[in-house]
Design a protein that fits this description.
- This protein is an alpha+beta fold.
- It has a single domain, classed as Cyclic phosphodiesterase (Cyclic Phosphodiesterase, Chain: A, Alpha-Beta Complex).
- About 20% of the residues lie in helices and about 40% in strands.
- It has 3 helices and 9 strands.
- The protein is globular.
- The structure holds adenosine-5'-triphosphate and magnesium ion.
- Adenosine-5'-triphosphate (ATP) binds next to strand 1 and strand 3.
- It catalyses: a 3'-end 2',3'-cyclophospho-ribonucleotide-RNA + H2O = a 3'-end 2'-phospho-ribonucleotide-RNA + H(+).
Amino acid sequence: MTTPPLRLFFALPLSPELAAQIVTWRSQYPHAGKPVAESNLHMTLSFLGAQPRGQVPVLEAIAASLRPQAFTLCLDRLARWKNGLLYLAPSQLPTELTELEHRLKESLLAAGFTLESRAFRPHLTLFRHCHSLPAIPPPTFDWPISEFTLFASENTAKGTHYKALGRWPLLPITTT
Ligand code: ATP
Ligand code: MG
């Protein structure tokens, strides 16, 4: 019997504290669309889609080899795409984020994974099915990134659940 494939992606997870802060802030806009569950808030780095379970150790080895630098992301843009996603994004992209995404992508491609050719557009989805951008000042959330995660996206009776299969720390910033 073959086991079903996993739906996999690498992402930056939020701490429960920051997720709670963001959810408290967005609760002022209850009609903005369908909210993403608090425990599902994240920023995708690389989406792999359906993969055999046997690929998980390969992905773990790639993740462990990266050893990226820690950084802080300042989420200070509120924006909406035509597909109805309302999201937070950084107006300044730290080079550490660009580098992490780039190196992860290069390693995945070198290992034979097929990835989207679209450019990386870092975002943290707040609502889906949002019809218009709320006319509100954007917030500022400072998000210290200390790890990245390999998630399996699972469909459950309660909705989509992301199961962390592995977490890798980012190297602390050292000052000399
Ligand atoms: P659901 O699709 O069940 O409503 P979801 O979108 O949160 O929930 P997934 O579709 O499994 O769950 O997606 C997991 C993550 O990967 C999300 O950040 C999603 O935006 C991203 N993602 C999904 N499909 C793609 C894709 N084709 N290309 C790039 N990123 C994707
Ligand atoms: Mg989806």
